[in-house]
């Protein structure tokens, strides 16, 4: 079992940077041609990869027959004769399925003649339902819908996506923009950042009273309780390895869930009920750290597992590591909870969580392992004492502040947009109250259950940290004035335009536009943006964003306000913000299933957020925000899109590159 655990951890770590490939062995192309008065021939051509086969339209003993459906036939046109099929139909007995199969390989074309009965008809809508198999497996049945204009074209000059059966625009090719300038790939150091946050969290947990006193005892067990020193050091090394392995295994379920739906972690991040739940959890963590109760796992778990730690071989170090994880839960649980919530709210949440857990486990394991190899380290460790209780209380106040952050995100997302309950000034006042409480605690004006109320002395470290907290309170207070912008906290606090000083309700709007820093922005209406771009002869800047997107707020508050960038956004482009986390429901007529190529399946589009999240993944192969793209009025990509937080120079270069390309097309 131990060997399997080690192998599983190794495979998990080495697969962090490997993306799963979607199998799509069938490519379908559509065409239509006029063959007589009011008569047309519709053709659907399926090109099938080697070793795969597409079932025929005959009833099958195994597998599902192919279907060609005409979706808008009623009252518009009639089918003439039966469907004609160009391709070699193969019939053979399958030992695997123990049935006769009829299928096509390599290539097959389905042709159907139609006669138009509605003179106003402009397009034919078809559906192609099929299933494919190879010698060892079958894929889930698929349905692809097509819209064919009677003039043979595939769309007008202005791309319209609201009523289509797919959200993919043929005009957008992220690999071949008009100009290859710009930076397509996101320079994202978030994995390193998450690892460092995990490492810091593990180091803080190490200093807690549940763990810190155990270091000398555990090290002594390995160095003095073994038959020989070499064997003891080996067990100490494996003890550290298993601590890391156990924490890494916590992230495995999230890799499985994330593979099912690439939008899962974005949905978790922006779900109003989950954010409220996270806020409650953090408040519970805070109260626990204040000393009013302890979060513990059942003691029977620890006792049973501790009994196994006496076993020989690698079983002993493994169960000792598992015992440490369980008995230290009252100290590590809240920190792990913070790390988990923070990680899974990132677009690549499972990978983020794995890196965070790796950092956490490494920080926890290193002192035990290094102290066993170098016992002199034990002499330099600080002694256990009251400072551990102080550290727990400080973290408790930080947990309270983080709880408000999740309440704020729930308020920003709302049920159909921001609710206006926790605007920037209200949020800052509550944070000021929390950190005033922390300052009073540091200066020993308030106490908690585990504090020594008789000890009124203040050490240098406590005074210094207290002064820093007071300075932070003053900084927070400066954000209460009109038009203030606390750049250092962008993404943590509500955006600057979400303010009590905006009197227009949920957001600042005028003439159908949202206003941010004086920039007129179209919300969630790409068709309108294209139409306005054509009218004003400007490119469209797509801003994939979210009410709960922290880096989006940082971009708006720190980068957009640069004078040169602000001028471009106000005067030279049509800005459209597409909110991928909006829970507002689409009109009934726009709620439909669309084919999602990147997932190779149909998906129900019900909300505004569903629509734009799917549109982003389909056209830009990306589900992280912010994501910016410059397009012409007919939907062509001017330059490479950019992703993630960019500084002023990077964002300006992106805009100037796209605008320069646009000018060259005039």
Overview of this protein structure:
The chain is α+β, with helices and mostly antiparallel strands and 666 residues long. Helix content is 44%, strand content 18%. The protein has helices at 2-14, 190-206, 214-224, 229-249, 252-260, 264-270, 272-289, 299-308, 315-327, 329-344, 349-373, 377-380, 387-413, 424-442, 460-478, 526-536, 550-559, 563-571, 608-620, 648-665; strands spanning 26-36, 39-48, 53-55, 67-70, 77-86, 89-94, 99-104, 107-116, 123-130, 132-133, 142-149, 509-510, 513-516, 519-523, 540-545, 574-579, 592-596, 601-605, 627-631, 642-643. The strands form five sheets. The chain has a seven-stranded mixed beta sheet with strand order 12-13-14-16-15-19-20. It has a four-stranded antiparallel beta sheet with strand order 1-2-8-5, with no helix packed on it. The protein has a four-stranded antiparallel beta sheet with strand order 6-7-3-10, with no helix packed on it. The termini are far apart.
